[in-house]
Each structure stands twice: as structure tokens, then as C-alpha cells.
Specification:
The protein has about 450 residues and is mostly helical. The chain has one domain. Helix content is about 65%, strand content about 0%. It is built from 18 helices and 2 strands. Strands 1-2 form a two-stranded antiparallel sheet. A hairpin with a 2-residue loop joins strand 1 and strand 2. Helix 2 packs parallel to helix 17 and helix 12 crosses helix 13. It is globular, with a radius of gyration of 22 Å. The two termini are about 40 Å apart.
């Protein structure tokens, strides 16, 4: 039982428990148990644990209060990660972390060293609670006038947890479309999504840097390469995405055209944020133009940053590969980012992530296209990339009665692979790599 197998099987165990709970009669408003409820329970549990937000039923109407509680609990566990959640539970019970648990946490959090794992775990839990509680109080201001204090408190807590963990589940049948003109919703929800998806390490560095500047401490914090790449790439993608959606959808009468310019700008900003990591929507995604859908597919495939609750190939992978392209164009044999040389093993890992991700998306798209040929290709591709990137946005075909059980199971597999990671899943299947001291002679071949 290797570390990678422990993590993969751990996620499967949580999904299995979630499927059982969400399939029970007390979790649904209908109060019945059937084969269909098992499929819905499996799909919803996987979507919640993998913090995706993909649905095959109306979450607000299909599930009861108990179902909603189970969903938000699965979202929290999935957002923290199986190893983080279980290890923190052991620490609460007074158990100490062994070497195996530290190694597992190191691999789950993608850290380079074992030192400070226990302190990092406590910091992650504290950061999560601070952001989720703050988000809940701010959302309470928006929900209370319409829904009353008691129910608004539950709505605020649910949506804050869902947004921070980049899940995209909503207790409103239209998601957040009725709040598309609310400035507070368009600030709080995207804010939680961005900070949740940018990675804990980046947040900690940002806190130390701000603390040093505010209190003018003598020790200067040197920002890491990971911080610079994650923050700069995120800002670029958010800006480009907002402008692109504004230009493409501004004349679409089914999305942005009926709105005034301030609301259009907020809706384009919201779509740019949620397309990369979460699954909330303030416009009808199914009525977007083909260009808008294609832009969304690209943003979903990229995803967020490592160490956070987002999916996709990650911003750092994108920057490494674009820097490789730049190095080739300038005739360099080394890859540089912010005056730092990128190690070759890291480049190989980035290539592996992209190739594995493309292979998974292609396979999922082919399988659903074969089983459900009545749906348009771009819709199928959209759903597969959304599931793999753990985004959760949908054109609406998953709610269609003609969407087959096989297609739903394919999306379940895509969500699972996207959450645990292609390389980690392959390591779990193949086993830990064995060192080799064999070296072969070099030989050139034609490329491009």
C-alpha cells in the first residue's frame, strides 16, 4: 500500500460513504430508494468530494435538508483533501503524526520537505475557517432581506463553503443567476474562489509579506517562484477572461446583451473567475455562443494553482510550458522564470500532466460521443473538460432525461481522475518508480 494508493483509495472510500448517505430516503425530498437514487447519489457524492459542482438533478429541490448537510460535509472533506482531513482528525484525538503520514501529507500537499507538516496542517485548517466564516457573514447581508435570518444563515454557510472549496454547488435552482447584479455577491463569491484556488502556500506567503510591510519588520521576505508564477498567471487569466467574455457575449441576447454595462462587466468577471475552478454561474451557460463555450473550455482546462482546492492542469504547469516554448524560440537550452532556472524533472512532470490530461479528456469525450451521439460535440467536450477540471459548469445536458447512465459514469470517472491527479493515479496503478542506473546513448530525431 503505497502513499499514492492510500490517497486514491481514501477518496474512493469517502465517495462510497457519500453515495450511501445521499441514496437514503431521508436524503431526498421524495423519500424513496431506487436504482436511480443510487446513480444520483454516486454522481453527486463524487461531484462533492471532488469539489466539482456537476449535477444531474436540481440540488435545491431533489435533496432534503439532510442531503444538503451531507453534500456540504463532503465538499469540506474533498476540499481539504482526504489525507489532510483524516490527519487533522487524528491530531484532534491526540495522535502524533508518524513518518508515513508525514510522507503522505508531503505528497498530498506537493511539498518538497517534511519539516513543519504538522504546523502547516493547523495553518490550513485555520485559514479555511477564517475565509469561510468571513464569507458567510458577508453573504448573510445579501440573503437576509429576501430569505429571513435563520434560512439565510444556512444559505450563507453553504455557499461560503462551496465557494472556498471551488465546488460550485448552490441551493438555488438557477444557481446565482438571480444575483448577477449584486456587487457583494460578485465580490465575495469570486474572492473566495480565487483565494481557495490559488493555494495555501501562496496565501501564507502573502500574509507574511503584508505583515512585514505593515509592521515594517527588518527581515525582508523573499517571495518564492511559486508565489510569483501563481499570482501573476492568475491575474493575467482573470483579466483576459473578463475582457474575452465581455467582447464575445456582449451582443448575445441570451446572456449579456439585456444587461447594462456595469452588470455586464460583473457577469463577465464572475464567469472569468468561476470558469477556471468553481461551478457557479450568473448567466445561462447553455445559451452562450460557441466562442464563449470554447473560451470557457480553455479556462477550465487550465484551472487554478497547486496546493489549493482547484483542478485543471494548474497555472504553474501552463507557465512552465509557455516558458519552454519561449526558450526554444530564443534558441536557449535552459528554461527560466523570474531569473530562476526550471529543473528538467519539473519540465518533464509538466509535460506528463498535460499529456495525461489531454488523453483523459479525449477518452472521456470519445466514450460519451459514442454512447450519446444525439448531443452536440462541443457540449460533450464542455462537460468532460468541466468534470476533469473539477469545475462543474454545464450546458445543461446532464439534466437531460436522455443523458445515459453510461455517460454519467464516464463523468464520475473524469471528476475522480481530475481530483486525485493524473500522475498520482498512474503512480497508484503502476507503483512507486524504481531507480535505474542504466544510461543509453543520445540520438537526434526530427521534431515539429
Amino acid at each position: 500500500m503505497t502513499v499514492s494508493r492510500t490517497i486514491c483509495l481514501g477518496f474512493l472510500a469517502v465517495i462510497a460513504v457519500g453515495t450511501l448517505l445521499l441514496s437514503m430516503p431521508f436524503s431526498t425530498t421524495a423519500g424513496i430508494f431506487s436504482w436511480d437514487s443510487v446513480i444520483v447519489g454516486l454522481f453527486t457524492a463524487t461531484s462533492a468530494v471532488c469539489v466539482t459542482g456537476h449535477v444531474v438533478v436540481d440540488t435545491a429541490k431533489y435533496f432534503s435538508t439532510w442531503g444538503h448537510i451531507f453534500i456540504v460535509a463532503l465538499i469540506q472533506i474533498g476540499g481539504l483533501g482526504y489525507m489532510t482531513a483524516t490527519t487533522f482528525l487524528l491530531l484532534l484525538l491526540g495522535r502524533k503524526m508518524g513518518l508515513r503520514q508525514k510522507v503522505a501529507m508531503q505528497q498530498a500537499l506537493d511539498r518538497s520537505e517534511l519539516n513543519g507538516i504538522s504546523m502547516l496542517l493547523r495553518s490550513i485548517i485555520a485559514t479555511t475557517l477564517i475565509f469561510e466564516i468571513t464569507g458567510a457573514f458577508l453573504l448573510l447581508i445579501v440573503f437576509t432581506p429576501k430569505h429571513g435570518l435563520d434560512y439565510s444563515l444556512w444559505l450563507a454557510v453553504f455557499h461560503s463553503i462551496s465557494a472556498w472549496n471551488n465546488a460550485g454547488f448552490s441551493l438555488f435552482s438557477d444557481n446565482l443567476m438571480s444575483y448577477q447584479a449584486s456587487p457583494l455577491i460578485n465580490l465575495v463569491i469570486p474572492g473566495l474562489i480565487i483565494f481557495g484556488g490559488i493555494g495555501y502556500e501562496v496565501i501564507f506567503e502573502m500574509y507574511l509579506w503584508l505583515n512585514e510591510r505593515i509592521f515594517r519588520k527588518p527581515h525582508q521576505i523573499i517571495l518564492s517562484l511559486n508565489f510569483k508564477v501563481a499570482v501573476s498567471t492568475t491575474l493575467i487569466l482573470l483579466t483576459v477572461g473578463t475582457i474575452a467574455f465581455l467582447l464575445v457575449e456582449a451582443q448575445n441576447p441570451a446572456t449579456l446583451a439585456p444587461m447594462n454595462f456595469p452588470t455586464q462587466l460583473m457577469a463577465a468577471w464572475f464567469q472569468s473567475v468561476t470558469s477556471r475552478t468553481a461551478g457557479f454561474n450568473s448567466i445561462d451557460v447553455g445559451k452562450m455562443t460557441a466562442t464563449g463555450l470554447f473560451i470557457t473550455i480553455g479556462l477550465m482546462f487550465i484551472g487554478g494553482s497547486p496546493g489549493g482546492t482547484a483542478g485543471g492542469i494548474k497555472t504553474t504547469t501552463l507557465r512552465i510550458l509557455t516558458s519552454c516554448t519561449k526558450a526554444i524560440l530564443y534558441g536557449k537550452e535552459e528554461v527560466y522564470l523570474y531569473e530562476r532556472q526550471i529543473p528538467v524533472p519539473l519540465i518533464l512532470k509538466a509535460v506528463g500532466v498535460v499529456v495525461g490530461s489531454l488523453a483523459a479528456v479525449m477518452l472521456g469525450t470519445m466514450l460519451i460521443s459514442f454512447s450519446d451521439p444525439e448531443f452536440a460535440f462541443i457540449q460533450i467536450l464542455f462537460e468532460v473538460v468541466s468534470a476533469f477540471g473539477t469545475v462543474g459548469l454545464s450546458t445543461g445536458i446532464t439534466l437531460n432525461a436522455d443523458f445515459s447512465v453510461f455517460a454519467k459514469l464516464v463523468l464520475v470517472a473524469m471528476m475522480y481522475v481530475g481530483r486525485v491527479g493524473v500522475l498520482l493515479l498512474m503512480a497508484a496503478v503502476i507503483g512507486d518508480p524504481k531507480p535505474s542506473f542504466v544510461r543509453y546513448p543520445e540520438e537526434n530525431l526530427l521534431v515539429g
